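Below: protein 1.
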Amino acid sequence: MGLHAKAGAKLRLPWDKPITLSRLWLFGHPYQYERVAACRITLSDRTTFEPGELPNVEGDGLEVTFPPRQTEWVEIEILATDPGKNCGLAEVAAFAE
């Protein structure tokens, strides 16, 4: 998922085998009026999190922490964006235990 992502866009990150995950970092594009205003994170066990809006300042990300979970994949769905044309995720970092 890159530029031009709007509500409903999804990104799934799969792994070859289950991992224990407890932290993600989400980074949006650093453009004024083009941030991800809301998103949903779903793990393969169907656990979901709605962490809120992503910062749109270059280098600032949103850290999402949760109790360690075994998962085979992570899916990030954009629920809402600002009205700009270049909304979306610039980077996602997942940290296995």
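Below: protein 2.
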Amino acid sequence: MPEQKPYRLKSAVKEDFDKLRNYDAGRDMYYFHRRFIRILKELPKNENVMILDFGGGSGLFTSNLMKKGYTNISLLDLSPIQIKQAKDKGLTNVYCGD
């Protein structure tokens, strides 16, 4: 069986998100909050649980988790632009890479 290629190359995804100077402004916040509530139901009640926000972008999920009391969160994203936006929100434990 031939090796399956990813749907989109990592470099193309990074390039697209690097173009977004204000990712949060273009979000459908109603949809975001519905997803966020669904995710909260799946998380442990222990607010010290370790969470990795993989592909966390501008930190919208991470910042909202922190508002709910979760403290042990790391964010990882490919885009330096998105990482800057997360850091501009005051988030720590924010990493750029894959």
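The chain has a mean pLDDT of 84.
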